[in-house]
Amino acid sequence: MKIDIILCGVGGMGALSTAAIISKAALDMGMYMKQAETHGMSQRGGDVQSHLRLSDKEIASDLIPDGQCDLILSVEPMEALRYLNFLNKDTGWVITNENPFINIPNYPEKEEVIAEVKKVKNSIVFDADQIAREAGNPKGTNMVVLGAASKYLRIDIEKLEDAIKDIFSRKGEAIVNANIDALRAGRKVADNI
Amino acid sequence: MEKLLLLGDEAIAQAAIDAGLSGIFGYPGTPSTEITEYIQGSKEAKEKGIRSNWGANEKTAMEAALGMSYAGKRAMFTCKHVGINVAADPFMNSAITGANGGLIYIAADDPSMHSSQDEQDSRFFADFAMIPVLEPSNQQEAYDMVHYAFDLSEEFHIPVMIRITTRLAHSRAGVVRRAQRVQNEIKLHENPKQFILLPAIARKQYRELLAKQEPLMKAAQTSGYNKFIPGKDKSLGIIACGLSYNYLMENFQNEVCPYPILKITQYPMPEEMVNQIYEECDSILVLEEGQPLYERLLRGLLNKGKKVMGRLDGSIPRDGELNPAIVGSALGLPVSKGLPIPSIVAPRPPKLCVGCPHIDSYNAINEAMVEYGVGKVFSDIGCYTLGALPPYNAIYSTVDMGASITMAKGAAEAGLRPAVAVIGDSTFTHSGMTGLLDCVVDNVPVTVLILDNETTGMTGSQDSSATGRIEAICQGIGVHPDHIRVLNPLKKFHEENLKVVKEELAYQGVSVIIPRRDCIVAANKKRKAAKA
Predict the structure, then answer these.
(1) Cβ of B391 under 8 Å from any chain A Cβ?
(2) At residue B1, does pLDDT exceed 80?
(3) Model pLDDT for residues B323-342, shown as the tens digit of each residue
(4) Does B341 touch chain A (CB under 8 A)?
(5) Please, what are the domains in chain B?
(6) What is this model's ipTM?
(7) What's the predicted TM-score (pTM) here?
(8) Closest CA to A73 of A127, A2, A153, A140
(9) Phi, psi (5° rounding) for residue B415?
(10) pLDDT digit string (tens) for A66-125?
(11) Could you tell me where the beta strands, DSSP code E, fall in chain A?
């Protein structure tokens, strides 16, 4: 079993914490993993991405080869499109929040962006912000997206919950529970499709 | 042993703690910063009393590491590739003095310039200085090689470079730890003249360095880090250096690579092993994550030997980092492709954060410069380099740490008026102070803005050596106190700040303006930490 994931967004939207949660869950399951991140200057309001590779066998490259990514997981719709060159065009999934994060003057029309996401063979594009608010965790968009993706991750949702407990335990029980609630709410979206 | 999930940088740091490190010395720079930060945040390191403060610059840091080695203890120095330029003087000469306690220099290179102004390959520097290099291909090797490098350094009394690149530095994987080793006691070298590079001694020491090369090459042959992997198809042999080995293997996931491979992660290049693959194969492909150092050597000036492929013959792009597709294409393998990226996708360049004090500083500078025209503001390396982009378009140079002040000086001496320098607080104490002294000594009319956000911002808020000291430094250097002006870069003070900038631009001497306000990222971090 092998799964290649690109997690993306804009600096500060939580794409990298999502990567940390999946990594922790995978490591606890005894899987091999490699996770490459962007740091440094690009984080100042720029796009951020993480290549996350999980496998039951040893992994060679830290980077996912073009056309082999199984899942693009994004907290922002245009960012999901930025990495389509990596997506396996037949079997790959794109799961993304539908609300643009606009911090550039030439951001395209939202409808055009959503239309491009929907052109991908397997995609889920939904209002993750709304679901996060409904779940009582307005900052939990990244957890909602992760929850929706969990159906395709081949990692038990319980393992992801354990990883959330572990990673956020320092921040207190309330934060842990808020994130788990957002995760479960996201999973419901995928289950209802 | 315990398995940890670590960035390449963190694997190096954890290994150093486990291998008996007594001190880490460096200056922040992407992608090297997390090595020192990991040690600064490590409870174990604190318990062991490992020193870990940042240096003012790479040169001071490397010299301090050398001093710790002189005293017999294990020391590590870290920087990004361009930091080796700053530390080049101690780097070259410490090869000749040699080390006493184990001494490792980490150079974190940034091919493709994700966060850098060039993509120089630090292996050239090591080759130049004739010191051994380890170039790990994965996180576990990075961990293991730190242990080995300290031993190698102490065995041969030589500093050892560990060269990593961005993708290893900032990629996480599981790493298995080893048993811990205690720190060395203070023990001076038996030769009291080892570190005195007077010509007569230096000549002798230099011959010793030359004599070490043969056994170091033998070590690279026998340590097990360089591997010859046989293959049936001798039409091609592949020399894969460091990380490139992974990209090669990615192309052979479900099959065995048919070609013989020489995996290189330790230098000096083991000649016997290279000879074996060269003799055995009809042609050679050299994979280097960086510049074509060994490809060029293998091919020679006249390129009259066997066919050597790589970055120089176009089999691989001449610049930029490697990836699985580039290596696959060089081998003539079919390369998978994803979907085209839709044309509506717009770039999202990095920009100054909302609330950043530099925004207010640039607004004042731009307005004050209107009457003088464009092209007169020199800048430096830091977040404020983003002032080169819209909407500011405020600066006209960024070359190397500290160059804003000295370039403004040279331009002023050419007659450019006004000549303005924009430099950050940490960059000022890194390499700006000496340039300011030159301005004072020559009494050149320059206006230096030291944007003081009281941290090293771009690399993620590390302590700045400048904090609380800038006015005193400038006065000590000889800038007249009347022309050291401190501003609060906030929108509500724009008019008064503008007035000060205009006054100092008109002044025909050395003036320093210090807009001072906390980095917004650092301030938020502090607030969160206080809450927790």
Answers:
(1) no
(2) no
(3) 999 999 999 999 999 999 99
(4) yes
(5) 3-222 (3.40.50.970), 227-330 (3.40.50.920), 357-524 (3.40.50.970)
(6) 0.93
(7) 0.95
(8) A153
(9) 110, 0
(10) 999 999 999 999 999 999 999 999 999 999 999 999 989 999 999 999 999 999 999 999
(11) 2-10, 32-37, 47-55, 71-74, 93-97, 122-126
Contacts of A104 in chain B (CB under 8 A): 346-349
Which residue, A140, A182, A62, is CA-closest to B245?
Answer: A62
* Among B68, B66, B70, B159, residue whose Cα is nearest residue B107: B159
Q: Domains (ranges, CATH) in chain A?
A: 2-191 (3.40.920.10)
In Å, what is the CA distance from B203 to each residue of B97, B195, B209, B216, B400?
A: 11, 12, 10, 20, 33
- To which residue do tokens 């390499």 refer? B431
Computed over every residue of chain B, the mean pLDDT equals: 96
> Rounded CA gap, B467 and B519, in Å?
12
Closest CA to B173 of A26, A163, A48: A26
Closest alpha carbon to B441 in B479, B398, B492: B479
Q: Phi and psi (nearest 5°) for B342? A: -55, 145
Chain B residues touching residue A29 (CB < 8 angstroms): none
pLDDT for A42: 54
- DSSP lists the bridge partners of residue B175 as B4
Nearest to B386 among A24, A44, A62 (CB): A44
Nearest CA in chain B to A65: B324
CB pairs under 8 A between A and B: 159
With a pLDDT cut of 70, the percent of chain B lying above it is 100
CA-closest candidate to residue B298, choices B282, B286, B315, B311: B286
Chain A contact probe: residue of B139, B172, B247 with most A CBs at under 10 A: B172
> What is the per-residue burial (b if ≥16 Cβ within 10 Å, else e) of B368-392?
bbeeeeeebbbbbbbbbbbbeeeeb
| C-alpha pair distances (Å), B58 with each of A9, B64, B114, B479 | 34, 10, 21, 26
Query: CA angle at residue B31 from B30 to B37, to 5 degrees?
Result: 85
In the three-class reduction of DSSP (H, G, I as helix; E, B as strand; rest coil), residue A163 is classed as: helix
Interface of B with A in 3-32 (CB under 8 A): 3, 5, 7, 30-31
Distances (CA, A) of A66 to A50, B339, B340: 14, 9, 11
Residue A1 confidence class, pLDDT cut points 50, 70, 90: confident
Put simply, whether B346 touches A (Cβ < 8 Å) is yes
The alpha carbon of B285 is separated from its chain's Cα centroid by a whole number of angstroms, namely: 28
pLDDT of A154 reads: 83
> Terminal CA-to-CA distance of chain B, rounded, Å?
32
Environment class of A28 (CB within 10 Å of its CB; exposed 0-12, middle 13-18, buried 19+): middle
- pLDDT band at residue A171 under the 50/70/90 scheme: confident
Of residues B472, B371, B352, B467, the one with CA closest to residue B417: B371
- The verdict on a CB contact (< 8 Å) between B336 and A35 is no
pLDDT confidence band for B524 (50 / 70 / 90) = confident
- pLDDT tens column, A20-63: 899 989 888 889 999 998 765 656 678 889 999 999 999 999 99
Among B76, B109, B350, CA closest to A103: B350
Q: What is the pLDDT of residue A37?
A: 87
